[in-house]
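Tutorial handout. Part one gives the primary structure; part two gives the three-dimensional structure as tokens.
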Amino acid sequence: MPDFAHPEVLVSTDWVAKHLADTDRVRVIESNEDVLLYATGHLHNAVHVDWQTDLQDPDVRDYISQRQFEALCSRLGVRPDTTLVFYGDKSNWWATYAFWTFTMYGHADCRVMDGGRAKWEAEGRAMTTTVPAYASTDYEGADPDPSVRAFRDDVLAHLKKGGPMVDVRSPQEFIGEISHAPHDPGAEAALRAGHIPGASNVPWSRAANSDGTFKSRDELAAIYLEEQGLDPRDETIAYCRIGERSSHTWFVLRYLLGFEDVRNYDGSWTEWGNLVGVPIEKGMPDED
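Part two.
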């Protein structure tokens, strides 16, 4: 992956196949939108991280605490120096979501398998239903890194100074035609539909090839830098509905294009569209 700004965070299926047995140093982690998918078959020695039950604390409607994160890593047999390789369904939506969470808590060596489950399966590589068991560790994490996450007040301040924002949802969501994800009509919807004023609409899927891999650096630069006019030196915020699609775009901007200061607003439209006293827009920015 030599053309990307940080090629070390993206590994190929060949690389993963060669390191699956190296469980002392590498932990392969599957994280999917479909939380039942892992049980139907997964990479040998891969563990499962359920985005709903492992990464979320329903009591406070937030991510798990540092202590809960440490307990999760300990249960997975992860040490601070373990290389973590994330993969999953939906062109690695949820793999990058998990990657983002682990990065937020300071795990040093996080990577993503380019192409995710779909590419691995398309190549006819072996899968198993056997769930591995690893000895528990005594993992010590770090305080959450505020540089990767944006909160409501951060977005309000960013909006007031005219900072760039990328809405990675579908055009139907962006213009206010619907307030839920089109792929999931039963999902939690916001009271209002539309987008944050000043945001540009770049659906997350534009960064992915049909096989689930990321597009080349030149192709990504053509979308985000040339077409949208984003500057890697500017503070940039990405958002979607609940933060999972925007974690994919956050990964693209930060690691593949080398943006210096990009944050994921995981409250996203589920929060913003239900807030009292914040502005929204409908339609495309160039529409009257």
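Part three, for discussion. The mean pLDDT is 94. The chain has ten helices and eleven strands.
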